[in-house]
Recover the amino acids of this structure.
């Protein structure tokens, strides 16, 4: 599927701005962004429920913008399930086949096949009111898949479920995708959902696609301040390039020293050529930073060292998040609890601590000037 130069304006509001995406066949592709970023509008344009002001949506080489929804080989699973309350699970799934006047034998065979796929064989005679939220969503997925679409669109399908059920349904959804093998386009504002199941993710904001990449690329190598902040937790600072040194390695890489207010000099590697005096945004993820009560003895030149005071420790069982005060800045640090401890956390509020991280674990996300 190729979405090319798609724009949409509602009154004075620019919902989409010349969006271009290429989505591969059989891919689990997520549209990720905050509320109002344009992801649902784009999904509705793909489905045929909205018409773009400009641009095209090509499925298997054919532009479907002028086709009605029922002729697009695309089906949608909605956030609110959209099940018929008076029909049984079986009849909800069979509904589109009955509209096509398929034979009773074929309907029974296909509905049984798709109920088995979503693990609802034993619930075929129940009404939607007798099902849990997760079961209703599986009925909606079976009903969408029974038409054998080329593309399945999922509009925040798990948002109405509680956290544990949402995680369970996410795994089931990924397993269904693996079995069916068609293209899934998944709309969500939840970063963890997108990172967990996607082959690739498009991060959107204010009608624009800011970055497209694998979950690893999006998380480890954000290309803008917004992507760095929106995907997971991070430390983000503006700094001025104080020095640039070309590294003797392939592929070509540079070691920068950044002058950051309150923190001082930070070393970071980058593949982009940068000039002394430029202002850049620098990010380092909290889990990349080592926190200790003793200063690191390493002499490696690529390691950043800082001293600070624990301003706030937040214990979460499997990990502790520390807010460490350095000058007027706060740095977030995550420490995983891999081993059992009888005495609780070894680092507590107001402790003097030492932070360190490799220049390779930081990232320059934007050159600002």
């Amino acid at each position: 599927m190729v979405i090319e130069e798609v724009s949409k304006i509602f009154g004075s509001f620019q919902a989409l701005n010349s969006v271009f995406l290429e989505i591969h066949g059989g891919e689990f592709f997520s549209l990720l962004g905050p509320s109002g970023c344009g992801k649902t509008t784009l999904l509705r344009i793909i489905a045929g429920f909205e018409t773009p002001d400009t641009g095209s949506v090509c499925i298997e080489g054919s532009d479907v913008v002028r086709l009605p929804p029922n002729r697009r080989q695309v089906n949608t699973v909605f956030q609110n399930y959209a099940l018929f309350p008076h029909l049984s699970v079986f009849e909800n799934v069979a509904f589109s086949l009955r509209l096509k006047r398929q034979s009773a034998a074929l309907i029974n065979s296909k509905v049984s096949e798709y109920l088995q796929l979503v693990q609802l064989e034993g619930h075929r005679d129940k009404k939607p009111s007798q099902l849990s939220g997760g079961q209703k969503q599986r009925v909606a997925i079976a009903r969408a898949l029974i038409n054998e679409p080329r593309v399945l669109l999922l509009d925040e399908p798990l948002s109405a479920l509680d956290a544990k059920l949402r995680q369970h349904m996410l795994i089931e959804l990924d397993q269904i995708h693996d079995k069916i093998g068609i293209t899934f386009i998944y709309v969500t504002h939840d970063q963890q959902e997108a990172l967990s199941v996607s082959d690739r993710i498009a991060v959107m904001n204010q009608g624009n696609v800011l970055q497209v990449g694998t979950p690893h690329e999006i998380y480890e190598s954000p290309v803008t301040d917004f992507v760095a902040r929106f995907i997971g937790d991070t430390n983000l600072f503006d700094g001025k390039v104080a020095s640039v040194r070309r590294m003797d390695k392939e592929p070509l890489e540079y070691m920068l020293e950044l002058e950051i207010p309150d923190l001082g000099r930070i070393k970071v590697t980058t593949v982009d050529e940068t000039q002394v005096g430029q202002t850049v945004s620098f990010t380092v993820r909290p889990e990349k930073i080592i926190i200790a009560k003793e200063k690191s003895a390493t002499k490696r030149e690529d390691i950043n060292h800082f001293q600070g005071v624990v301003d706030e420790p937040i214990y979460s069982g499997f990990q502790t998040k520390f807010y460490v005060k350095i000058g007027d800045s706060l740095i977030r640090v995550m420490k995983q609890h891999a081993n059992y401890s009888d005495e609780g956390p070894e680092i507590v509020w107001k402790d003097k601590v030492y932070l360190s991280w490799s220049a390779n674990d930081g990232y320059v996300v934007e050159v600002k000037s």
In short: The radius of gyration is 25 Å. The mean pLDDT is 92. Helices lie at 39-47, 89-99, 104-117, 133-145, 163-180, 191-197, 215-220, 225-230.
